[in-house]
TrEMBL record:
<dbReference type="Pfam" id="PF13186">
    <property type="entry name" value="SPASM"/>
</dbReference>
<keyword id="KW-0004">4Fe-4S</keyword>
<dbReference type="Pfam" id="PF04055">
    <property type="entry name" value="Radical_SAM"/>
</dbReference>
<comment type="function">
    <text>Catalyzes the cross-linking of a glutamate residue and a tyrosine residue in the PqqA protein as part of the biosynthesis of pyrroloquinoline quinone (PQQ).</text>
</comment>
<dbReference type="GO" id="GO:0051539">
    <property type="term" value="F:4 iron, 4 sulfur cluster binding"/>
</dbReference>
<dbReference type="InterPro" id="IPR006638">
    <property type="entry name" value="Elp3/MiaA/NifB-like_rSAM"/>
</dbReference>
<keyword id="KW-0884">PQQ biosynthesis</keyword>
<feature type="binding site">
    <location>
        <position position="24"/>
    </location>
    <ligand>
        <name>[4Fe-4S] cluster</name>
    </ligand>
</feature>
<dbReference type="GO" id="GO:0016491">
    <property type="term" value="F:oxidoreductase activity"/>
</dbReference>
<comment type="similarity">
    <text>Belongs to the radical SAM superfamily. PqqE family.</text>
</comment>
<comment type="subunit">
    <text>Interacts with PqqD. The interaction is necessary for activity of PqqE.</text>
</comment>
<dbReference type="GO" id="GO:0009975">
    <property type="term" value="F:cyclase activity"/>
</dbReference>
<dbReference type="InterPro" id="IPR011843">
    <property type="entry name" value="PQQ_synth_PqqE_bac"/>
</dbReference>
<keyword id="KW-0479">Metal-binding</keyword>
<comment type="pathway">
    <text>Cofactor biosynthesis; pyrroloquinoline quinone biosynthesis.</text>
</comment>
<feature type="binding site">
    <location>
        <position position="17"/>
    </location>
    <ligand>
        <name>[4Fe-4S] cluster</name>
    </ligand>
</feature>
<keyword id="KW-0408">Iron</keyword>
């Protein structure tokens, strides 16, 4: 199958992070600081990505503000003609830093928020973070940039959906993304503690619907339902190796941010192979392009061109083979593993990201 050029790149500049969120989807084994790409290597990655066709660059982590060279990398990506999005916890984002980053080319900021009230937010973040986020939101607005507030929903904050929407409005968000936890990396370890109850999900939906009506034209409210409680999988990444790529802090190039969980694949590193070659020719990017790799029931299913058989990472983690149908799908012979994971209604303490 001939691949099209990628549209976007998630550049995970570092895994270092001041927060300790139990729903973190980064790998269990984080990339240490001394294995992170250097400034020159990141500049080269950005240049290669633009030459490959990338137009949107998402600077993320961990916390991208932990990299001292962030302003230089922003300026470089902007100079190449990329749209630059900063994905941040907001800790360390002062008015001066935000103004400087905006001058250098950041055009949009995604700010994570953990809960509606400071006490609960700080417990979930494992740090005194909430009040800094309010200051960060003010700095983003003052810089004149559009703001998206990102909230990962789970059992410990799902009952606050209404109050979280109010908070996003108060922070001046243009967009609010309420996304239920995806169970990869550290989050999978905390699955039982994070899994929302059916009652929580049922209660949230009318709240979101009412908020969408009330805020129409002012704040876009996106609500992503919990994967495990759906009967149809999501079209993960709009297809494997179709539109996006991720570069991890050490230069490993991944078809999706969670692909590191698929230990049956070997992923190339941009320090050893050009990015264009990895995109078009590597075994990892070609593994699940098109439909040839699909097994039944996906192979003969009418929805295979709509959802691409769901998420390969989830299929690998829950069934042991990434070629299998995502077990979230009710047609999967492995769907029982998802039903079992949803079932327990007891509260379990979560393990903070160390
Ligand atoms: Fe999608 Fe495969 Fe399920 Fe069909 S069988 S709905 S293609 S995951």
């Amino acid at each position: 199958m001939t691949a099209s050029p990628p549209f976007g790149m998630l550049a995970e500049l570092t895994h270092r992070c001041p927060l300790h969120c139990p729903y973190c989807s980064n790998p269990l084994e984080l990339v240490r600081r001394d294995r992170e790409l250097t400034t020159d290597q990141w500049r080269s990655v950005l240049t290669q990505a633009r030459a490959l066709g990338v137009l949107q660059v998402h600077l993320s982590g961990g916390e991208p503000l932990a990299r001292r060279d962030l302003p230089e990398l922003v300026g470089h990506a902007h100079g190449l003609g990329c749209y630059v999005n900063l994905v941040t916890s907001g800790l360390g984002l002062t008015h001066e830093r935000m103004a400087d980053l905006a001058r250098r080319g950041v055009e949009h900021v995604q700010l994570s928020v953990q809960a509606a009230d400071e006490e609960r937010a700080d417990i979930i973040a494992g740090a005194r973070a909430a009040k800094h986020k309010k200051a960060a939101a003010a700095a983003i607005r003052e810089a004149g940039l559009p703001l998206t507030v990102n909230v990962v929903l789970h059992r410990r904050n799902h009952d606050q959906v209404g109050a979280i929407i109010d908070l996003a409005e108060e922070l001046g968000a243009d967009r609010l993304e309420l996304a239920n936890t995806q169970f990869y990396g550290w989050a999978l370890r905390n699955r039982a503690a994070l899994m929302p109850t059916r009652a929580q999900l049922d209660a949230a939906e009318p709240v979101v619907r009412a908020a969408r009506r009330r805020l129409a034209g002012r704040v876009e409210v996106v609500y992503v339902l919990a994967d495990y409680q759906d009967r149809l999988p999501k079209p993960c990444m709009h297809g494997w190796g179709a539109r996006q790529l991720t570069v991890a802090p050490d230069g490993t190039v991944l078809p999706c941010p969670s692909a590191h969980v698929i230990t049956s694949l070997e992923f190339d590193n941009v320090t050893e192979r050009p990015l264009a070659e990895i995109w078009y020719e590597s075994s990892s990017f070609n593994a699940y392009r098109g439909e040839e790799w699909m097994r039944e029931p996906c192979r003969s299913c009418d929805r295979r061109g709509v959802d691409f058989g769901g998420c390969r990472c989830q299929a690998f983690l829950l069934t042991g083979a990434a070629e299998n149908t995502d077990p979230v799908c009710a047609l999967s012979p492995h769907h029982g593993v998802v039903e079992q994971a949803v079932a327990p209604a007891v509260d379990v303490p979560f393990v903070m990201r160390g």
